[in-house]
Amino acid sequence: MKYLIVGLGNPGPEYANTRHNVGFRVVEALAKHSEAVFATDRYAERAEVRSKGRTLVLIKPSTFMNLSGNAVRYWMDKEKVPRERVLVITDDLALPFGKLRLRKEGGAGGHNGLAHIIEVLGTQDFPRLRFGIGADFARGAQVHYVLDRWSEEEAKSLDQQIARATEAVRDLVLMGVSRAMNVYNAK
Asked: Which of 159, 180, 178 is nearest to 169 (CA)?
């Protein structure tokens, strides 16, 4: 069984350690755990890992956040992965730092990357893992906040929070989205 695991973020070193790129960080941690290496391919950097009879195609779109739908559609088609086995990992301002929220489907919640994926796929019916980045910014400073580096306090526990997110991905693949939601949404 094959899954497409999409970490959202922006390509380029200037975005590498920003809050908006936490999706990239999660798929990078999944690859590192399995000693997989990302290679540049069409619309994304791609790596592949195998776990307990399942294949996880990990991608980091190179299309920039607001055009992520193009990469998701291309890789769904190329790898022949149905919507229900696509997992999009993204940052979320509405959740406190480190809080995870799995959903089978849902709207964009103001996230431009998710909005573009929904637009391109013509549906919001695909699983997503939202990683809370908090909302500690002044009115009108949202863009600066999401594109800023992690605070010193956040950085102290970021690796631990990312490890929890990788566990959530593995559990979703092994147990299914509903059971994984029961485990991670309750924490």
From this structure: 180
Q: Determine contact, residues 74/152, Cβ cutoff 8 Å.
A: no
The Cα–Cα gap between 34 and 54 comes to 13
Query: Of the candidates 68, 79, 80, which has an alpha carbon nearest to the alpha carbon of residue 7?
Result: 68
| % of the chain beyond a pLDDT of 70 | 99
The full set of domains in the chain, from first to last, is 2-184 (3.40.50.1470)
pLDDT confidence of residue 53: 92
Q: Which of 44, 47, 100, 110 is nearest to 72 (CA)?
A: 44
Of 106, 49, 46, 50, give the one whose Cα is nearest residue 76. Answer: 46
Q: Hey, which residues are catalytic here?
A: 20
Return the sign of the alpha-carbon dihedral for residues 98, 99, 104, 107.
negative
pLDDT confidence of residue 113: 95
Q: In what order do the strands lie in the sheet with 2-7?
A: 39-41, 44-51, 54-61, 2-7, 86-92, 128-132, 100-103
Q: How far is CA 94 from CA 97, 121, 166, 187, in A?
A: 9, 24, 20, 16
Q: What is the pLDDT of residue 187?
A: 57
Query: What is residue 161's three-state secondary structure?
Result: helix
